[in-house]
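INPUT
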Amino acid sequence: MGSSPVTLPFPSLIPVDKSSGVPVYLQIANGLIQQIRRGILQPAAKLPGTRAMAEALGVHRKTAVAAFEELHAQGWIESLPSKGTFVSRVMPEASPQKLDQPATTQHPAQTGFALRGNAHTSQPLVLYNGMLGFNDGFPDERLAPMEEIARTYRAIVKRSSARAYLSYVDTQGNPHLRSELSAHLNLTRGLHTSPDNLLLTRGSQMGIYLTAQVLIAPGDRVVVGDTNYFTADMTFRHAGANLVRVPVDDWGLSVNHVREVCQRQRIRAVFVTSHHHHPTTVTLCAERRIRLLSLAEEYGFAIVEDDYDYDFHYNSSPILPLLSADTKGMVIYIGSLSKAIAPAVRLGYVVAPPNLIREAAQLRRIIDRQGDAVMEQAIAELMHEGAIKRHLKKALRTYHQRRDFFCERLREKLGNEIDFKTPDGGMAIWAKFDPRIDLVKLSEKALQQKLHLSNGLRYNPEGQRLNATRMGFASLTLPEIEQSIDRLKKIMMN
Amino acid sequence: MGSSPVTLPFPSLIPVDKSSGVPVYLQIANGLIQQIRRGILQPAAKLPGTRAMAEALGVHRKTAVAAFEELHAQGWIESLPSKGTFVSRVMPEASPQKLDQPATTQHPAQTGFALRGNAHTSQPLVLYNGMLGFNDGFPDERLAPMEEIARTYRAIVKRSSARAYLSYVDTQGNPHLRSELSAHLNLTRGLHTSPDNLLLTRGSQMGIYLTAQVLIAPGDRVVVGDTNYFTADMTFRHAGANLVRVPVDDWGLSVNHVREVCQRQRIRAVFVTSHHHHPTTVTLCAERRIRLLSLAEEYGFAIVEDDYDYDFHYNSSPILPLLSADTKGMVIYIGSLSKAIAPAVRLGYVVAPPNLIREAAQLRRIIDRQGDAVMEQAIAELMHEGAIKRHLKKALRTYHQRRDFFCERLREKLGNEIDFKTPDGGMAIWAKFDPRIDLVKLSEKALQQKLHLSNGLRYNPEGQRLNATRMGFASLTLPEIEQSIDRLKKIMMN
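OUTPUT
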């Protein structure tokens, strides 16, 4: 009581750097916390007043006041009326109780038990971000309306109604976004969905995963193309499926072969990327779509329709999804906003009858609990006011131009070495290399020259070497296309 | 050529509403698109100039110019030098080809195939957002630094370096956040992690899911408490585990019982919520932690340590996690930033030796591909400058005060009807109701009076009725606590 404040060389203990990014009041608060932690400032020690502190440190008094307020809020100091300010008797940080064990200094290098092991997911993933070259067919994230999205996100959390999006929310996804998306799908794809038919997911990949998990019991057979989206293969296998492969030709999956398989054995599902087959980019023709639907009804299998790039078609009119003609509930439709906006915005969806949506949502609950409700609301508002549609239009025009330029240049410069068809839509071509060129070696050589070109092995059917790969064009500007093709040509000619 | 522009009653076709939230230039652009779609404006029709259009619609000429620019960018109109502006000959929207099938008008009500069925995830989830009452122990999302997070998110996407976060990224999580988090865990929990030991997930739930999937083969035994976090139960069962239950007393999971189980049968893993057992809130004592670790080494089982609320302890010093004393790689440690910040920010983590982290990351790739890289970077930057730590300090003080007030009031008003211990930390109490009170009926009555009180059934061991439930206090302000308890008392006394 009435004691005098501690005298310490505060300026040397608490260096203030006004050019640092950290506000000065926080530098002071953090400096004082450090002295308390180190025991230089003891519990119950009386502190100088804010005026004296400000003078000692050469800062404005308001800054010292802000620092003390911060310390107070954090529980490091306490004020007694007309007595002054003291270091708290009870520290806000309790030092934890150590376990009575020999001290370790590093994390164990290996688990002390064996893992279950899962070969189906073991393909390593390498990123080539920032490297020139040809990816699998990614969108150009530079076109994405991220500023509008971030601005809307921020506006939402500032509203008094924000609370609704900040706590635990509906696992099925934000109702506004489901409503906007349902209307959008009905308008653009001839569907008849209501928000109850939609489950929002993290990108289409989670849609495929949830679908596989609610559908497949170990040993179930799933029909896929002899070439097929490799991540879908992994996902169905992880769920315990045996894959049955049928040929894919210029009109998509051979439905005659699907029929033959069904006549021999019981089939649980057929997986199709109907709009542009992954990896070969061909479109499943309308007549086969109808026949596949009839087969599904006849044999009772599910059709998993992954329509990841429906938004991007350049020449002919797109064919409506199989789901648009499904009257018996045979189709599970999976789509993505991540390809349409940017991979950073992880948003996809599953469209199916409510009984499947409910089961998938309940499973999602133990995987991921819920989506990003603020982001979902932001996208819903941007869809409502038209910003997403405007972005899609602009992206479509840009990618169309890039496809034309890319195909023209590639044909002109490497038309003898690479055989390809100009795809009707999508973001990549399927490039078949001349048999005299070893694509695996070429890919290694390219990497040494800082050019990304997939060796195509992951696109191969088991036991075959197609010597072909996907070459994405959508994420490259026209000068980048020119530069990439020129560099590839130089490497090939060396 | 030289033809005159179409004459149409534009003001009646394109109503402009200056008070609407949609910019006027967009209203005009959208109105013109509608007329083009409806065929009122035909392909190749010549449009009036921007000056004439502006006059006709009563807007500034700049607004008409902006509308035309938008239409041009979207591909609806084209300009010919010194000829004027025309409706595009080739529409940017191709109308899709319909499938030749009888028209449907609604989505099928039911799948045409049976689902696999999965009883383990079938507990329905009901939300009581916005209703007064007692949840499972949620954080108060009103305290979360969402504005700082949103501001940082926006700042990141505006930077020229944003591209690195907007495309496909490392499935294991943002390296900056892993580095910040690793340092934070080492400092606060006596761990010895490096960023290679961390996998970022969507909340701790995804951590539990991935752990269960890389660990458990169908039929494996997992030891859990006789009361246990019900979502963990579901997750292990979904992976095919058989649960073996051991008693939980005032010092946590009975390790003697774990030993007895191990002597009888092979055990794959033990799941513990060591800091505060869910649901009963007791802390696993230090001595049992050491014995459990030795048992794990002796019998080769994994310890899955879910430390979801380590940040929140009020009285005693917290005991360091089991992982801090693990030298043999027996512990998989799971934590969460969602509880520490807000459920809306889905961020959790798994800490384990790199071999497990790699497998879990590869599995995550087929579930979810990657996290929200921009958000992860934002949290990393806020951790670096101290904002997350400041938030945690303030939340801790607030919850401490709420716990004290809640326990005092509840004891005072309903101390005879509800038996509970003041928990050392966490966000909820474990409330045992007098046997003469039927908690299930009380919960129904409360719901009718717009008060949320869980009936506690989901916390019960199989085949038992504990007549107990969790009552969360952290998300309630002091007046809300007062009001909730008063209303509960009134309902109980009626």
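end of record. The first strand of chain B starts at residue 77 and ends at 80.
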